Amino acid sequence: MNTVFLVSLLQGLLGTIILSLLTFLFGGLAGFAVALARISPVKPVRYLAQGYTQIVQGIPLLVLMGLAYFGPILAGYAAVPPLFAATLAMTLFASSYLGEMWYGALISVARSQWEAAECLGLTRWQRMTRVILPQALRIAIPPTVGFMVIIVKNTSVSSLVVGYAELTYNAKIINNATFQPFLYFGLAGLLYFLVCYPLSLKARSMERKLNVANR
Fold first, then answer.
1. Predicted confidence (pLDDT) per residue in 183-199, tens digit
2. For a pLDDT cut of 70, what percent of the chain falls above it?
3. Helices 133-154 and 82-108 meet at what angle, rounded to 10?
């Protein structure tokens, strides 16, 4: 096995990790905003957040990648860097699912907790930060960690449209040069596994520790 190709795979893995972290950061921030909007007392805000979630979840990630990368070009602007386009598409994807996931965690908090916080005379922000969010966090953490696995694996879609040099993209380039798909795609799969499996274990461990199922 050529050392240069192995280094290329590891560089691709670094690209995958960078894209995953950027996606989780920006997707998490946007997803949190979506979750809060879903429980807003203002109806138009709730409907807008719900519509955003349904629209984005109804569009394949591959299409989002294409729109993010080719959209500016078709609009007459300069081409955006592959990492920017991939991050934008992945952020939209992640925010819609994380927003829905965290919205579910918020509404899972017992109604009596909302009412008790209101009876204490707390403002809406105080009720959220001091009473509701700490309880919702226990529910949301395990599936959120599990969703990180989906984010890592879905970064491979960027290799199909925007040409971002992540793990799958580099494995494909190496295969085109060596015609050894089993070896190099197998190594790529192993590297994905080494990243994703600990996250899966962590999600299951946290679910047992937080005892979400038996709250």
1. 999 999 999 999 999 98
2. 97
3. 150
Say what the alpha-carbon torsion angle 188, 170, 74, 62 is, to the nearest 10 degrees.
-10
**What stretches of 109-166 show up as alpha helix (H) in DSSP?**
111-119, 124-127, 133-154, 158-161
Separation of alpha carbons 69 and 170, rounded Å? 19
CATH 1.10.3720.10 fits 3-210, yes or no: yes
Nearest alpha carbon to residue 131 among 163, 106, 156, 150: 106
Q: Which residues contact 80 (CB under 8 A, 6 or more apart)?
A: 68, 69, 72, 88
Q: State CA 62 to chain mean position distance.
A: 15
Per-residue pLDDT tens digits for 118-128: 787 777 778 88
Burial of 166 (0-12, 13-18, 19+ CB in 10 A): buried
Q: Determine what percent of the chain falls in helix, strand and coil, rounding each to the nearest 5.
A: 85, 0, 15
Residue with tokens 């197998």: 186
- If you average pLDDT over residues 63-71, what whole number do you get? 93
Instruction: Report in angstroms the alpha-carbon separations of 78 from 6, 72, 97, 164.
Output: 34, 7, 30, 17
Distance CA 175, CA 180 (A): 6
In this prediction the pTM is 0.89
The token duo for 31 is: 């997803």
